Amino acid sequence: MKKLLILGAGTGGTIMANKMRKILAREEWEITIVDQLKTHYYQPGFLFIPFGMYTHADVVKPKTSFLPLGVNIIFAEIEKINAPENHVILNDGVSLKYDFLIIATGTRTVPEETPGMKGPSWHKNIFDFYTIEGALALANFFKTWQGGELVLNIAEIPIKCPVAPLEFVMFADAFFVERGLRKKVNITYVTPMSGAFTKPRASKMLGNLLEDKNIRIVPDFYLEKVDSERKVIVSYDEREIPYDCLVTVPVHKGDPLIGRSGLGDDMNFAKAHKHTLQSDLFPNIFVIGDAGNFPTSKAGSVVHFQADVLTENLLCAIENRPFTASFDGHANCYIETGFGKGALIDFNYDTEPLPGFFPFPGIGPFGLLKESRTNHYGKLMFRWIYWHILLKGKEMPIDSKMTMAGKKM
Predict the structure, then answer these.
(1) Residue 235 region, left (φ>0) first, then alpha (ψ -120 to 50), else beta?
(2) Are 76 and 206 members of one domain?
(3) Rounded CA separation 402/328 (Å)
(4) How many CA atoms lie within 13 A of 202 on its CB side?
(5) Each residue of 323-338: pLDDT tens digit?
(6) Range of the domain at 345
(7) Is residue 76 one of the residues assigned to a domain?
(8) Domain-located, residue 409
(9) Which of 74, 155, 227, 238 is 20 to 30 A from residue 80's alpha carbon, by CA?
(10) Is residue 86 part of a domain?
């Protein structure tokens, strides 16, 4: 019997387990998925927790709830991928052979990479919201905080969900307005990028939104260290920004096992072709989502669109024929802007976000590059879609390739 092995039961791994189990004959193919954690986190929901909009229960479910019958599930840590010999070694020494391997190990935050960040002030007045622990600690802090300098800092890119830091500061603006504290809170958005976002047109629109909300932007700030005693962050060019509450997006890296296995770059992101999703090093290994070194956003929508491409190309590889699918870098992101409104961007490797309508030309219902209540509701609806449709590999009425229909040049 042939073996398909999937490393990681997060969004990408779970979608692929569902898709491939429906396609590959059970009498011919054994599918196994390995992950060290039993809990599945709806990570976009972490953003809502500090502001009391979601609770812990809203963002966690057992991973087994989303994996289909006929897929072997192993909860264990992985020591190494022995790619030349087509097997994976677990920490307990067990070896798992494969004919084809999907790497879906995601990315992780490493606050310890920045001197002074993860010290005695960690989760006291220095927080992240990219982990459940950080989001819950910040929610508790905001319950009694009476104001001061609120600084959001992105340590380095790439990061998961590049719009989430923007959403955070806009949510914070609305949150403190509603609590009557906004005049006592100065909000500063500190980024290594040259503007609010990586794409120029979206950066201008989002930068204007921040300006309208009296949120200061500090661009081109490359974080060197956090001085928690003096309560300042310091850049490599020795600029300093004081804070009373620091909300940081720490450095992101891939899983260390990718580095140990010799399959990654210097940040432990697996090297793979940006269009075919095939490993640069071994033809029977494929990569999906945040685990890869793809030059696109590390976001849930990217994983969804990549899954369609990977399914087709994996079948091509199994049947020993040329690839017929190509990933174009498609990503779309709802952006919460506060006060019950949101924006939406849709882009790919070659085309920056443009104004228009999504997903249907002329009618939307979602507007691109503009604020609306409909976009806010789209963001809220996505949680239900994620749990009930996306993870289970079901079809959605959005093409994996970005279309120019409905967009205005």
Answers:
(1) beta
(2) no
(3) 7
(4) 25
(5) 999 999 999 999 999 9
(6) 331-390
(7) yes
(8) no
(9) 155
(10) yes
